[in-house]
């Protein structure tokens, strides 16, 4: 109780208020998210977990501004994102958030370095710095020997590390990862998780990741459990 | 106000990289445009070449000629109406009363000419002695001579041969004073004309045999004259001659449509009417090839739309604003379309030059602009439209697009 009251003074980095996301499948409406409330604070390492189809990925997409809620509010750094223009949203995705996908989503036939610096294309960083920054990021994920390799020439774990380097390239406050180890073997998966721990502890970045694996979720400081579109563990409104 | 990055420059570089990376897509998209542009240029150039060739042929004859023909211009020829009038020697002597013009009656037909075992189908022209001098048809020194007035009067069985017919019948061997056979009559070759250039579809004065008109009357067993050419002494007198000729002919042929006195511009304009129809037909074919090319472009753009939509989703997820995405795809489509259009223009023009060696073809700037404009427009519209649609999806919907 004392801990949570001390956090109430601190403003949350990200807050969801009564978020509902409705999908229509074959004429039938169902709520993938059914009134979700949660807060994520600066510097936290949070796992979102739940069974398949519980709505955890949908939640992640809404947190990552990749999708819009049917109703409810998403408040990022005090701004209601519903009030932001398409261009302002793009800028937040570019500057504040770093998204890591389960399927990596790298540009095919494109060298690792070019994939990493892709977000810089849409930032204010001068072109002359792009390569240097890209190289630095690849060094951080221990792929400085693979800069010219295309995704097809990299293993799954290496591809995911390229994707993480891409997520880091604009120095974002929050790293969001949707099943980042879901397509990887356990050894590569561990490497990715170690990287997230490093980014959280040494660089102070807020990490939110989705996993269906409870053992993996236990590595986080806090676990949000979601079931049938509702948060059942941890926080309540 | 947000500062919108990247610049056009960066987007162009990004577009070029994407074009180079997807070689097969680049090739197939350009191919559609290349085929569309080059086929339109080729087809229209053939139509235009034909037109300017015919116009050129008429101009080269000289513009002080008048043609007196039965019927009207459009109904002339073998399919003309049966009630068509036939001219005779009396008309010729009447027309000869015109002071400042030469009268050249003639009959033209087609027939088989035989030399030894070689037989050739050719144009046969029955003309008068003064045709050679007045129609610029006298044989060059060393190639024999035109027939004389006395030969004409005596119905001498002599003939002057066109250079193409000569080659067909005699090859490179000597032809002067050789005997050939036409319609059961034996003729002596007394001269060969200079080449005046090959005509359309092989029809030309080079592939013809010239025989005195008097002999023609004997062979045809008729004194009918097909047409009469009037050559005015001076270009300026052509209107006076035309008026006089109409008056003279009008006395004998009262029905308005029974004869025509036409100068070359009239004949040219009636031929141009036919050629314009041809151009319209060719344009129709060109339009079809443009549509086919356009569908080719469209198909490859639609086939790649899944891949592209996912790319757009990713770009949006990492912070590209919609306009940057549209601009990049627009630049990509413009580069691809212009590249294909440029190659198409080069290929089409080279093809037209090649065809020009056997058949008149002339590239026109209009056909180039039309073909290039339509193809690039199709390329750009179908390159950008899916991107526009995709850039409006939420990033996750675009990423999941199937």
What is shown here, in short?
The complex is a heterodimer of chains A (237) and B (402). Chain A is an alpha/beta fold. Chain A has helices at residues 2-9, 56-63, 86-95, 112-121, 127-140, 156-168, 186-201, 214-217, and strands at residues 14-25, 28-40, 45-49, 71-76, 79-80, 97-100, 174-178, 206-211, 222-227, 230-231.
Give the helices and strands, then pairings.
The complex is a heterodimer of chains A (237) and B (402).
Chain A: H1 2-9, E1 14-25, E2 28-40, E3 45-49, H2 56-63, E4 71-76, E5 79-80, H3 86-95, E6 97-100, H4 112-121, H5 127-140, H6 156-168, E7 174-178, H7 186-201, E8 206-211, H8 214-217, E9 222-227, E10 230-231
Chain B: H1 8-21, H2 23-60, E1 65-70, H3 89-95, E2 101-115, E3 118-127, H4 129-134, H5 149-153, E4 158-161, H6 163-170, E5 179-182, E6 185-192, E7 208-212, H7 213-220, E8 227-232, H8 238-252, E9 259-263, H9 264-303, H10 305-317, H11 322-356, H12 365-392, H13 395-399
Parallel strand pairs in B: 3-7, 4-6
Antiparallel strand pairs in B: 1-8, 1-9, 2-3, 2-5, 2-8, 4-7, 5-6
Helix pairs in contact in B: 1-11, 2-9, 2-11, 2-12, 9-12, 10-12, 11-12
Written overview of the protein:
The complex is a heterodimer of chains A (237) and B (402). Chain A has helices at residues 2-9, 56-63, 86-95, 112-121, 127-140, 156-168, 186-201, 214-217, and strands at 14-25, 28-40, 45-49, 71-76, 79-80, 97-100, 174-178, 206-211, 222-227, 230-231. With 237 residues, chain A is α/β, with parallel strands linked by helices. A six-stranded mixed β-sheet of chain A has the order 6-7-8-3-9-10, with helices on both faces. In chain A, helix 4 crosses helix 5 and helix 5 crosses helix 6 (156-168). The longest helix of chain A has 16 residues, at 186-201. The two termini of chain A are 15 Å apart. The model of chain A is unreliable at 1-8 (pLDDT under 50). With 402 residues, chain B is α+β, with helices and mostly antiparallel strands. Chain B has helices at residues 8-21, 23-60, 89-95, 129-134, 149-153, 163-170, 213-220, 238-252, 264-303, 305-317, 322-356, 365-392, 395-399, and strands at residues 65-70, 101-115, 118-127, 158-161, 179-182, 185-192, 208-212, 227-232, 259-263. Chain A binds chain B through residues 61, 64-68, 86-88, 90-95, 99, 101, 105, 107, 109-110, 114, 118-119, 121-124, 127, 166, 170, and chain B through 2-6, 10, 14, 17, 21-22, 310-311, 313-324, 394-397, 399.
């Amino acid at each position: 109780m004392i801990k949570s009251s001390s956090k109430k003074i601190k403003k949350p980095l990200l807050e969801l208020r009564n978020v509902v996301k409705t999908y229509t499948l074959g004429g039938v409406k169902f709520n993938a998210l059914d009134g979700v409330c949660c807060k994520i604070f600066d510097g936290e390492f949070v796992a979102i977990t739940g069974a398949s189809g519980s709505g955890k990925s949908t939640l992640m997409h809404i947190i990552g501004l990749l999708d819009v809620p049917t109703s409810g509010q998403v408040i990022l750094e005090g701004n209601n994102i519903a009030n932001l223009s398409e261009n302002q949203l793009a800028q937040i995705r570019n500057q504040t958030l770093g998204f890591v996908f389960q399927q990596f989503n790298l540009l095919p036939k494109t060298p690792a370095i070019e994939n990493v610096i892709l977000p810089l294309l849409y930032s204010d960083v001068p072109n002359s710095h792009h390569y240097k920054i890209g190289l630095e990021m690849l060094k951080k994920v221990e792929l400085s020997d693979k800069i010219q390799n295309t995704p097809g020439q990299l293993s799954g774990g290496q591809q995911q590390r390229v994707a993480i380097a891409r997520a880091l390239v604009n120095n974002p406050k929050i790293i969001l990862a949707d099943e980042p180890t879901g397509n990887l073997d356990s050894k590569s998966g561990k490497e990715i998780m170690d990287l997230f721990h490093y980014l959280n502890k040494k660089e102070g970045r807020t990490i939110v990741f989705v996993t269906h694996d409870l053992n993996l979720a236990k590595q986080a400081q806090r676990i949000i459990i979601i079931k049938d579109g509702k948060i059942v563990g941890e926080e309540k409104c | 106000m947000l500062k919108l990055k990247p610049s056009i420059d960066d987007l162009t570089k990004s577009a070029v990289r994407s074009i180079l990376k997807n070689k097969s897509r680049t090739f197939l998209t350009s191919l559609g445009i290349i085929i569309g542009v080059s086929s339109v240029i080729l087809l229209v150039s053939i139509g235009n070449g034909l037109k300017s060739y015919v116009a050129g042929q008429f101009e080269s004859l000289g513009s002080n000629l008048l043609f007196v023909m039965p019927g009207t211009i459009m109904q002339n020829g073998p399919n003309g109406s049966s009630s068509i009038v036939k001219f005779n020697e009396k008309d010729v002597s009447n027309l000869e009363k015109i002071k400042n013009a030469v009268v050249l009656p003639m009959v033209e037909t087609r027939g088989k000419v035989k030399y030894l075992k070689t037989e050739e189908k050719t144009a046969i022209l029955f003309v008068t002695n003064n045709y050679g001098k007045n129609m610029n048809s006298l044989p060059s020194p060393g190639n024999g001579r035109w027939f004389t007035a006395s030969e004409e009067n005596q119905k001498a069985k002599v003939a002057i041969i066109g250079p193409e017919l000569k080659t067909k019948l005699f090859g490179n061997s000597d032809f002067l004073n050789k005997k050939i056979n036409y319609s059961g009559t034996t003729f002596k070759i007394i001269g060969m004309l200079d080449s005046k250039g090959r005509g359309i579809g092989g029809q030309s004065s080079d592939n013809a045999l010239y025989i005195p008109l008097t002999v023609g009357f004997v062979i045809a067993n008729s004194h009918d004259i097909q047409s009469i050419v009037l050559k005015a002494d001076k270009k300026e007198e052509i209107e006076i001659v035309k008026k006089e000729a109409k008056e003279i002919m009008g006395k004998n042929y009262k029905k308005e449509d029974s004869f025509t006195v036409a100068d070359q511009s009239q004949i040219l304009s009636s031929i141009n009417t036919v050629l314009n129809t041809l151009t319209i037909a060719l344009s129709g074919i060109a339009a079809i090839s443009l549509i086919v090319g356009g569908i080719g472009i469209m198909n490859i753009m639609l086939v790649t739309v899944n891949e592209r939509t996912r790319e757009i989703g990713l770009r949006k997820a990492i912070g590209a604003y919609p306009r940057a995405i549209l601009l990049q795809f627009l630049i990509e489509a413009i580069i691809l379309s212009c590249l294909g259009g440029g190659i198409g223009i080069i290929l089409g023009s080279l093809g037209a030059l090649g065809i020009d060696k056997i058949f008149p073809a002339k590239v026109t700037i209009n056909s180039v602009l039309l073909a290039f404009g339509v193809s690039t427009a199709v390329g750009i519209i179908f390159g950008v439209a899916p991107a526009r649609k995709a850039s409006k999806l939420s990033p996750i919907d675009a990423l999941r697009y199937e």
